[in-house]
Amino acid sequence: MQHLKKLFLNLISLPFLSRIWGQITRLEHPGILVQAAIKLFASHYEIDMSRYEGVLESYNSLCRFFTRRLDFSKVSIPGNDSEFLSPCDGTVSVCELTESDTATQVKGRTYTISGLIRKELNFGDGYRLITIYLSPSNYHRFHVPVESEARAYLHTGWRLFPVNRLAVNSIDELFVRNERVVVKFQHRDFEYFYTAVGASFVGSIKMNFAEELAAESWQSVDCSYRQNEELGMFEMGSTIVLVVPESAVGKVLVSAGEKVSVGQPLFVLKEKHDDQAG
What is the pLDDT of residues 102-112, one digit of tens each? Predict the structure, then answer.
């Protein structure tokens, strides 16, 4: 049975299937079928439209519905420059201090941070790693957790495994193998890494700083972001992995298994800290 599960996961991880799905979600006609699909999806995942712009009938494709915006006249995202905030809605699957090039994917399964971000780090004082899973029911846009400068990004990986519980328990180094965008941010005196990991049937990962993402090598970028400013979006649910030097981390305010909302504090920032990233 385990072999059949892995075979299934490997088959659906082939990118062309997700690209086809992405094209299907962009279809606007026939409108009656598109509306029926949107209503079925919203009903199945019990999506509360009171948080979002418009009503179900306002969306003319599944893609537009998946990437719906919050209605900021009804929902306010709190901000506090002494705290590092959740960049998205979702569930914290991992919150750990690591003092080596090893991160937990799920209990009993690990991957390398250097493999994830394609960069070597100095683990002398350790890093705080926080992984947040966005389910299909969640808000699919993601934001910047603290006022920061985006200095560089990397677009890499070509598989698109699911990132649900079945997949993370079955596939070795899933986050290292999947398509992803890694952004290197500078906040005052420390660097941190922000990784948006793609998944099966995510049409694509969109980043606000680039219309087209270059692939397979670090690219320079120079963009300033306010805390909670939108950074990008998934065209379906997926995963965000944050890697922050532990020297910047004060009291941790969340734990694995906890549901979080965009703008919710993840940890308190220390007033002074040493730069650990390279």
Answer: 999 998 899 99
